[in-house]
Amino acid sequence: MTLTRWFATATITLAGLFANPIARSQPAVAGLNLPDNPIAPQSQTPPDSSTTPPAAPAQNTTPMTEEERRKLAQEQLAKQEKQRVFAVMATFNTTADKDAVPLSTGEKYQLFFKSATDPWPFVLTAFGAGIDQADNSFPGYGQGVQGYAKRYGAAYVDYFTGNLLGNAVLASWWKEDPRYFQKGTGSFTRRALWAASGTVWCKRDNGTWGPNYANVIGNLMGGAISNLYYPASERTVGDTLSRGFTVTAQAIIGSEIIEFWPDMVRYHRRKEAEKLARQGVVPNAVQPAPGSTPPPPAPQP
To answer: pLDDT tier at 23 (50, 70, 90 boundaries)?
Structure first.
């Protein structure tokens, strides 16, 4: 039921984002990177074969100092903490930089705290609790305002506990990177499998890849801790394991959305730009105010 709730919430959110009029605004044309004058020929200067091309600059193999590493990691983390899907859905735990500097223990806790206190999980939890209320999930909580408050609190504590254990405590202990590294290229199947494997396979602080112990065990530990506040009828071993693995399944869905969302945005913007181009719409054109008289045409010489 929890997985159904999360999936339904994500679907509603995505539908709302696609319907957002921002996606149909000026950036749709700008994203095409069209030339200013596609008709005018572009002159090219033939290369001078007598000129020897400059040698490529030598790569700096000097290892970074701790201060340089810390500064670069903070710069990358600051960019991640601004990542959102249409200014709504926070994607702080995601990076497209395959060579991102490993996070220190303090930076992992910083990333956890930023994610846990962002408005996005509170909004998502509110939708999820509402769906649980309508389905009468966890009937021991009852109905009404009190029942909704209990469902809301339980859902957010589930998220908070899993995030704390999987992305901060255990990730620091086992020196695992809590971020999802976007693949971004390759076939659809390869990228889908890559996104799904992120919950059980992760990058380590030393640059190697291995099992994502922090995420899997953190989810199971979170499921066990949830027995402290779920109704007595929901505290069986099966329910505990189900909650732990359900959180893992939710993470897979989230990774798939994050992996392919940029492609969906680019496709949507390209289609909107093509539509505007067929209609002859010029971006940033100054339109006369409603009800005003347009200026007369300039006199011909």
So the answer is: very low
Mean pLDDT of the residues in the chain: 77
Write out the two tokens for 116.
Answer: 């846990």
DSSP 186-250: S-HHHHHHHHHHTTTEEEBTTS-EEE-HHHHHHHHHHHHHGGGTS-GGG-SHHHHHHHHHHHHHH
In order of 52, 143, 237, the CA distances from 132 in angstroms are 70, 10, 21
CA distance 191 to 100: 19
Q: What is the pTM of this model?
A: 0.68
Rounded to whole angstroms, how far apart are CA atoms 28 and 184?
Answer: 20
d(CA 10, CA 223) in angstroms, rounded, equals: 21
Is 141 exposed, middle or buried (CB count within 10 Å of its CB: 0-12, 13-18, 19+)? buried
Give residue-wise pLDDT tens across range 157-166.
988 998 999 9
Cβ-based neighbours of 108, under 8 Å, separated by 6 or more? 167, 168, 171, 172, 178
Dihedral pair phi/psi, residue 187, rounded to 5°: -70, 165
Q: What are phi and psi of 43, to 5 degrees?
A: -80, 140
CB 115 within 8 A of CB 163: yes
> Please, how many CA atoms are within 13 Å of residue 263, restricted to the half-sphere of its CB?
14
- Residue-range domain boundaries for the chain: 2-6+66-279
Cβ contact 147:133 at 8 Å: yes
Per-residue confidence (pLDDT) for residue 19, from 0 to 100: 42
DSSP category for residue 98: T
Let me know: does 230 contact 127? Beta carbons within 8 Å: no
- Whether residue 27 contacts residue 153, with contact meaning beta carbons closer than 8 Å, is answered with no
